[in-house]
Amino acid sequence: MPSPSLLGVFAHPDDESLFSGGVLARHAAEGARTAVVTATWTPDTPRGAELAEALRILGAGEPRMLGYADAGVPHSAPGRPRLCEAPLDEAVGRLVAHLREFRPRIVVTHDAYGGLTGHPDHVHTHRVTTLAVQAAGLERLYPDAGAPWQPSALYLATHPHSALAALSELARAGKGMNTVPDERVTATVDVSPWLRQKWAAVLAHRTEVERGAAPGLLAGFPEAVRDGILSTEWYIRQDAVLRATTQTELKA
Mean pLDDT across the stretch 177-185? Predict the structure, then answer.
């Protein structure tokens, strides 16, 4: 039996590979439908092309992009508002349309901190996704966005306090360390069998490698250190989404 269909929703091109590349690759390898919605940048930019390559490597289909501008890079979506400045109702409606069209059983996005660094686009993507997952199943909300569809589970990509030792090199490089108590983590996934695929997807984001962002930092670490950072993915199940439906779990 294939793994359940999975839709990732992330702020920037490269977030999907860094935070959930292993789970995306695993679900695709097991025959599940997988896809990614990216909140910022546009397909006709270099980073849009890099995203397309990364998704091909992960088996996650073609890019689905909301088309808002990155908070710090206005040219990422010329003529469009920054994600955090766009009308919330508009952003939620755009994502609801993708949810109803793709009809995933599982949705994965950033945690409430916006991941380790707390980037404002990550935090806002978390908010938009949480609202959209709830709205997608209600027929009177966004009636022009397609027939209602309720995902069975929402998982938040996170890092527990116990991962701080493995993340120490990132901390020394100046990256933020927003971690959560271990007891909040509901799924710990060993993605080492898909690590080669995940790392290839991270490297596909060449712009970020070259400018020394997270993919570039990771590329400069010894392989053992990098593997220690990337070989496990942690998630918090957002139980408030659907308490009364059949449980749909990420496999540990």
Answer: 96
